[in-house]
Amino acid sequence: MKTRPLVAASLLMAALNGAGAQTGGTATSGAAATTSNNVPGIPAIAFDKYTLPNGLQVILVEDKRLPLVAVNVWYHVGPANEVPGLTGFAHLFEHMMFAGSKHLPRGLADRLLEGAGASDSNGSTDYDRTNYYDTVPSNQLELALWVHADRMGYLLDVLDQKSLTNQQDVVRNERRESVENEPYGIVEEALNHALFPNDHPYRASVIGSHTDIQNAKLADVRDFFTRYYGPNNASIVIAGDIDKVRTRALVTKYFGSLKRGPAVARPKVATPPITVEKRLVVPDRVELPRVYMGWLTPPAYKEGDAELAVAAQILAGGKSSRLYKSLVYGSQIAQDVDANQDSRALTSTFTIEVTARTGHTPAELEAAIDAELAALRDTGPSDAEVERARNQIETAILSSLEKLGGDGLADQLNHYNQYTGDPGYLAQDVARLRQITARDVQRAARTWLQERSRVLVAGVPGIPELPPDPPAPKPPKARSGKGAGGINEAEAWRAEMPKAGPAPNMNLPRGESFRLANGLTVIHHYNPALPLVAAELVIRSGSDANPDALPGLAGFTAQMLTEGTATRSAPRIADEVAQLGAFLDAGSSTDASSVSLLALRANFGAALDVLADVVRNPAFPTAEVERQRASRLGDLIQQRDEPEIVAALAANASLYGSRHPYGFGQLGTEPAIRAVTREDLLTFWRRHYVPGNAALVVSGDISRSDLKALAEARFLGWKGEEAPRIVPGDPAPTRARVVLVDQPGSGQTALRLTVLGAERKTVLYPALEVMNAAFGGLFTSRINQNLREDKGYTYGVYSGFRYDRTPGPFVIAGSVRANVTGASVSELLREAQAMVDKPLDGAELAGARNAELLSLPNRFETNSDIGASLAETFVFDLPLDYYSALPARLAAVTAADVQAAAKRYLDPARLVVVAVGERKRILPQLEKLKLGPVEVRDTEGQLREGQARP
User: Which residues belong to any copy of the Peptidase M16 N-terminal domain (predicted)?
Assistant: First the structure.
């Protein structure tokens, strides 16, 4: 992937609809179509679908919610089309599509799109498709089409060995980060290998192996492009604030003259069934064992596919699921549970994964999972369970449509188009979901989820057996290949960047506020786009209010809210919320605690009843406190397996010290978790969860008057003393310049360079954001271009400010190859000094400033996004019109402002270097930099007795 893995907006949506792709149906030429609207509660999505003479399928959706347009291109190719010996090639090629084309030299497209305000700009590869997508301001649609068309038509004209070598380095770093250095990554890969035979295209992971990635030749890239990247093997969805007539003309202009490629036959691969259970034990650098079970299941949209998605939700879809209730809540032998029907074109897979609680074994987990599977096969689920699963999946599908780009509306239409031939399949999809019965689910489980037909893999603590990681060879001396010949005729006009249209109005949500008689603030934003409502009850107290001896208390208190009230048990809360098709969650941050809710409009009132109850009447039952204590201790153990999290904890502890509430993560420490009492939790709740310290923030399809009535009915009786404002003490930072956490055997180093930054209300906020965009906030930022694109040290490196009520940290973060740890730190410090020494030139300033300014509407695509932004105004005492005024403040940022911000917050001499990796490999590299004192910390980021300078 170009910058980061594509994460689905909802696992439930992925479970129902799959992640693969195949061509389905015949596109209609020039015909308009609209989704059928015979399913109550499901919005009709009007679209035009037609096919260009060269075979490109075009789908247009006019949606005026925001001045944004999503451009989403799918190519019908993935690992399913790979040949043996080149696993991961489709994903490698996805990277190559960003390496430059004839009229857009390497890096220019990214700079232009970011400077135009693009967001959700990326690409991803799955087993049956590859996609590329951007969301741009509506006046920049032509720019996005120009970029995508040039990649489709003119990549081969400039393809060279230098670009291939660089992206091989990047992809191999991605494999190290996302598979080999990721807890259980190689265990999941082993499961996939066992499910499919050696010659099956689904056997390897999408990212492939180091050896195969390195074996790719320039000729392979040229052949792959010629074979699969013609317009007749692609479809494009353009959704948002468009004029369809003008958009049709632009599509014809940029894509119409591109030549049709060779006909592409869909892969036809017979997948042999598993008839005898397979068992594997795979060691990994983890502390808790985990059991994976996998089955081969029906392809996407075939009989049994949707039924198994419902089965996955019943088995492990949250706290109302069977495996959670049995293994996590009941016997407490498991830390977490998950299940998924991963729908693909050739065959799908159904997986269950369960992590053991401390002291429990894979054998215990297996027996408990088997008991639940046997019950599902033998007696089936109840009607209520099926209804809960269907309702939550349906809400997840609808919520995914809130976004235009990314994995939202445009992507979903492209998905439906490839699987069914109908971009407007939403109504039929929900209809098939609603028709599923308990008997259907039981039948699917009996047919597909038998013990004899599964693979069982136990991931256990140990030394992992990693596949070969050969050194990258020197680039061949053969000619570069640049100019070796393209496919399409030269058209001189394509060299000219299209001009932007008139700038759209930027009317950002500001919300309306009113207070109840008891002091509760209510902030409302009306958004009727979809029948959804998001709510957040936010408390202006977070970890900043933790006592010195109990870090993590705010998070523990928030976690306990959904674990039982005076009238509702924890299981009842989970069942009731799921039955409504709603999602309820609670948590804390440095400055706030919150309970969030997402529900269908029709069920919002009933769901708000539950939210109000858990906030106002938590019972903190002793048994539930002990359950959550064990859960938090397990989370703490799992946290230690994540190098990036360990680096973040060590960075915070180094900046703030062990007596400051910001010096810890939201979990706190093991001694604190063990020491917390029920009375501590109750005291924190009584002191901070009071109406005068809270705001109910609601965005969605609900009027102000209806919300006022609901808020008064649910919260007017809520009483409490005024909560004291909390001001954390002064930080006590480490005197060391280098902080090291040893992770033996790691092939990568998780790096953090950090310094104390600014508070949220700082007047320098716009200048800091522009400065950070140029330095490390954008894909084209200085540090990412240096370490990723130029040197191939990393999959990606970024920077950013965390703004708290008091100064929060500025962080530079990324994972690099272990053998370039010192070189990476040296380059990052050099880039920081360059920002201090010299102001941005006009082009870089304009690009960074516009990237921040013009992308603002994308922050308000979903109701949850809108609610979070409005909640921020409450937490940090910002005016409700803060975001309305922000564009003008960003537009006024100058190069001098940026340099002044860099001098104040980016002084390399003040940056503390945190490195999590193999000490014996990385310490000598860091010592050569002569930065100053070095100290060693533990995996919770704390400096224990006896841990100091190596």
Answer: 58-199, 522-643
Q: Is 452 in the same domain as 582?
A: no
Characterize 351-375 residue by residue with b for buried, 16 or more Cβ atoms within 10 angstroms of its Cβ, and e for exposed. Answer: bbbbbbbeebebebbbebbeebbee
Residues 6+ apart with CB under 8 A from 384: 575, 579
Q: Is residue 146 included in any domain, yes or no?
A: yes
Q: Report the alpha-carbon distance of residue 604 to residue 608 in Å, rounded.
A: 6
The whole-angstrom separation of Cα 816 and Cα 819 is 8
Same domain, 147 and 255: yes
Instruction: Assess contact for 784 and 798: CB atoms under 8 A.
Output: yes
**Rounded Cα gap, residues 466 and 502, in angstroms:** 54
Please list, in sequence order, all residues whose beta carbon lies within 8 angstroms of the beta carbon of residue 326, skipping any fewer than 6 positions away. 368, 371, 372
How many Cα neighbours within 13 Å face the side chain of 369? 28
H or E segment and range at residue 456:
strand 454-461
Neighbours of 112 (CB within 10 A): 19
Which stretches within 103-255 are classed as H helix?
A: 108-115, 141-154, 161-175, 185-195, 210-215, 218-228, 244-255
Please choose, from the candidates 320, 358, 352, 357, the residue with its C-alpha nearest in 3D space to the C-alpha of residue 337: 352
Q: At what angle do helices 895-905 and 842-854 cross, to 10 degrees?
A: 80
Q: Which domain holds residue 852?
A: 738-860+877-932
**Residue 277: count of CB within 10 angstroms of its CB:** 13
Angle, CA of 139, 145 and 146, to the nearest 5°:
105
Catalytic residue (choose from 62, 82, 94, 353)? 94
Question: What pLDDT score was predicted for residue 509?
Answer: 87
SS3 817: strand
Q: What are phi and psi of 281, to 5 degrees?
A: -120, 125
In this structure, what DSSP letter does residue 790 have? I
Q: How far apart are CA 360 and CA 352, in angstroms?
A: 18
Distance spanning both ends of the chain, measured CA to CA: 38
> Residue 41 region, left (φ>0) first, then alpha (ψ -120 to 50), else beta?
left
Q: Check if the beta carbon of residue 229 is closer than 8 Å to that of residue 75.
A: yes
Instruction: Assess whether 897 and 786 both reside in one domain.
Output: yes
Pull the structure tokens for residue 593.
């605690």
SS3 533: strand
Both tokens assigned to 162: 């230098």
* CB hemisphere CA count around 272 (13 angstroms): 10
- Residue 717 DSSP class: T
The answer to whether residues 698 and 778 belong to one domain is no
Asked if 353 is an active-site residue, the reply is no
Q: DSSP 3-state assignment of 378? A: helix
Is the CB of residue 776 less than 8 Å from the CB of residue 799?
yes
CATH (domain of 160): 3.30.830.10
**Quick one: tokens of 613?**
């109850």
Number of domains in the chain: 4
Residues paired with residue 32 on neighbouring β-strands, in sequence order: 48
> What angle in degrees, to the nearest 10, is found between the helix axes of 108-115 and 842-854?
50
Query: 623, exposed or middle or buried, with CB in 10 Å at 0-12, 13-18, 19+?
Result: exposed
Which uninterrupted H or E stretch holds 122? strand 119-126
Whole-number Å distance between alpha carbons of 576 and 195 = 37
Largest CA distance in the chain: 79
- Residue with the two structure tokens 């003490």: 729
How many Cβ atoms are within 10 Å of 84's Cβ, its own excluded? Answer: 11
650/809 Cα distance (integer angstroms)? 12
Q: What is the pLDDT of residue 484?
A: 61
Given a cut of 70, the residues of the chain with pLDDT beneath it are 1-38, 475-484, 944-950
| The pair of three-digit structure tokens given for residue 772, joined into one six-digit string | 């950070």
Question: 390-417 as b/e, with b when 16 or more CB fall inside 10 Å?
Answer: bbbbbbbbbbbbbbbbbbbbbbbbbbbb
Residues 715-728 as b or e (16 or more Cβ within 10 Å = b): beebebeebeebeb
